[in-house]
Amino acid sequence: MKKITVTSPLLPPLEELTPYLEDIWQRKWLTNNGYYHQQLEAALCDYLGVPYISLFSNGTLALITALQALDLEGEVITTPYSFVATSHAIKWNNLTPVFVDIDPATFNLDPSKIEAAITDKTCAILPVHVYGNPCDHDAIQAIADKHNLKVIYDAAHAFGVKKNGESILNMGELSILSFHATKAYSTIEGGAVVCHSQEMKDKLDRLKNFGFESETEISLCGMNAKLNEVQAAFGLVTLKHIDQAIDKRKKIANQYRRRLKEVKGIHFFRDLDGVEHNYSYFPILIDEETYGCSRDDLFNKLKSDNILARRYFYPLISDFHLYKRNHNTASYIAKDIANNVICLPIHHELTLAEVELVLESLK
User: Fold this and answer.
1) What are phi and psi of 139, to 5 degrees?
2) Does one domain contain both 67 and 209?
3) In the listed set 239, 260, 292, which residue is the last one of a domain according to the structure?
4) Both 194 and 146 in a single domain?
5) Which strands sit side by side in the sheet containing 166-167, from one edge to the other?
């Protein structure tokens, strides 16, 4: 049996991409805010329903630059249940991550536990829309307003997700996207920052281009984090196919749900009311006592059946040696979930027959 992978990159038809590449070769403008870079920013603003977007060479640099743009100092409250880039971006800005436990219903940062972690050094809250599930923004923003804190969302998983018809990327001061090849929408490598003003967009654009104010003036200590023209063209063509890919993911998620609802000891998310999901991931939570098998045993069984699932997120960021000294609040729920979660294969190329093979292996 061929390997069933947890994800697969969304590749546009080569014949659709080729004319873009030929045009790039003709223009000889490969980077530095080129034609397709500008076209993709406009197309993404329209598709996502956001006012301003600045493209980056990857999501990590987008997050690092977003935090830099806000001129923060001190501590940033965040979640230990995320990919390590979330906290790395905080440390790259000489800020201190403060980990707060998560909500067992959504796996997102628990707003009820935020205030206990606020000190006179707290400057911002950095929640993550885990698996694309929207955070409780109203509660988080109310706390931020009360304590005069910035809110920046790691929305790496949340491409195209809407709540009550509104893009969740419009939440907070800034939202950060990842366009890595493993994401539902990809520019091979890439990322973006969503913001609410031309002034902030201009600042982000300067920061990702070494801080150049003009040809002869540097105004900020920036870096090179620009998206090139080939990746921008790839993104433009891929955007034409994203809706179909998300529809396929939804069908797969629904098939998993129909079949797994009868399996004792396996728990999974259902669609949230008023939310348009992108089905980037299909995590399940294993109750070892009821299921009769640990998460790690299941992971190894699937692997032996040529099914590549993912323990995502495991371990917690706060359990890495680099961050243990920052682990100053209890994260019992996050720890339990990290030890028992596994993401099943879900992507646009996965057939329903292959989904059945995964389900058979889970029995």
Assistant:
1) -70, -40
2) yes
3) 239
4) yes
5) 166-167, 162-163, 275-276
Q: Which of 208, 161, 203, 209 is nearest to 184 (CA)?
A: 161
Number of domains in the chain: 2
pLDDT of the residue at 90: 99
Strands 174-178 and 191-195 come out as: antiparallel
- The model's pLDDT over 83-131, given as tens digits with 9 standing for 90+, comes to 999 999 999 999 999 999 999 999 999 999 999 999 999 999 999 999 9
Class of residue 196 by CB neighbours under 10 A (exposed 0-12, middle 13-18, buried 19+): middle
Question: Distance from first CA to last CA of the chain, Å, rounded?
Answer: 18
What residue spans of the chain are helical by DSSP H? 14-27, 35-48, 59-69, 85-92, 137-147, 198-207, 229-239, 242-260, 288-291, 295-304, 332-340, 352-362
Confidence (pLDDT) at 327: 61
325 and 275 housed in the same domain: yes
Residue 118, SS3 per DSSP: coil
- In this structure, is residue 180 part of a structural domain? yes
Q: Are residues 221 and 248 in the same domain?
A: no
Report if residue 166 sits inside a domain: yes
Query: What gap in Å lies between CA 287 and CA 342, rounded to an integer?
Result: 12
| Lookup: tokens for 306 | 């040529």
Domain CATH for 103: 3.40.640.10
Question: Which residues constitute the domain of residue 66?
Answer: 14-239
pLDDT band at 328 (very low <50, low <70, confident <90, very high): low
pLDDT tens track for 233-283: 999 999 999 999 999 999 999 999 999 999 999 999 999 999 999 999 999
Q: What Å distances lie between residue 254 and 41, 130, 167, 271, 283, CA to CA?
A: 32, 19, 23, 10, 13
194 inside domain: yes
